[in-house]
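input
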Amino acid sequence: MLSPHRETCFVSKYLFSVIIPAFNYGHTIARAVHSVLKQPINCYELLVINDGSSDHTENSIRQLHCHYSSKSQSGQFRSLHQSNHGLAFTRNTGIDHTSGHFLIFLDADDEMTENALLHLERIIQKKPRIDMIIGAHLSVSATLKKRFRPRKPVPYQPQQALREYLITAKLPIINGATAMARHIFNHYRYPVHFPSNEDIPVFAYALANFHCITTNTPIARIHKHTDSMRHNISSNLSVGMSLVDEVFSPARLPPACLALKAQYTGHRYQEIFRALYRAGYYCKALDYFAVAIKQNPMTLFQLSILRKAARALWRQKRKHSC
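output
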């Protein structure tokens, strides 16, 4: 797999640009920043973007600049403050205001592992034509229980790589544990009209068009909690099925990959059904289940989904109405 859009990168003294978008994460932003600025190498810059937070995020960032005064004065640690525009817009802003050859988007409630950038640097030194490095991560529960999430190799064929990312979930990609070459964003950015799931079409575009590899070294600690955007059902619903068309744009994916669109459409209906079921919206969940069956009758033979649908029907009947 070669990179069809590789272009000469402008000169930068930084190998990595770590970008932390922050919206009302004043209680965790220090942990995220500390995890970056304590990395054992110096070929990186850190940009924190306060996306119109209404809590004490701005004050927390100010205190961090005082704590890391030398890195702040040198420009290695910078911050921006803007009115609220959402995660996609903020990440795109980070791309425009940094210069590193590789971009890492770390969520404000997560953190880098201790030697993450050193490990990524060594990979790039050995394989300088790599475009995206997909790292393993540690999943951290609310009780601080850690679970290692490994990564299998990226399939050589882009279509298979895309299938394993979008449909079978054999190739998960996590922000904060993934380094992306800057030139990936020369022709496509995060879709600003998406309040969530904005990273899915970007990762799909990268897998289909660029040279991607994995590493089983954990790059980030991903903290799971109920108020995380990863669990925001309303924003997920607002994106809905429009995600399918955004991912499978003929302008961005090769024909072999576009052939997966019908299969992913059925998968997306199932995905929204599961999200609604977990959130307790059983009537809406059953609507998506019905459409998923029409899209792919084999859904009836997926026992885990069938069990959830049966439970949703039983629980909905107990409520007597939708």
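quick obs: The mean pLDDT is 93.
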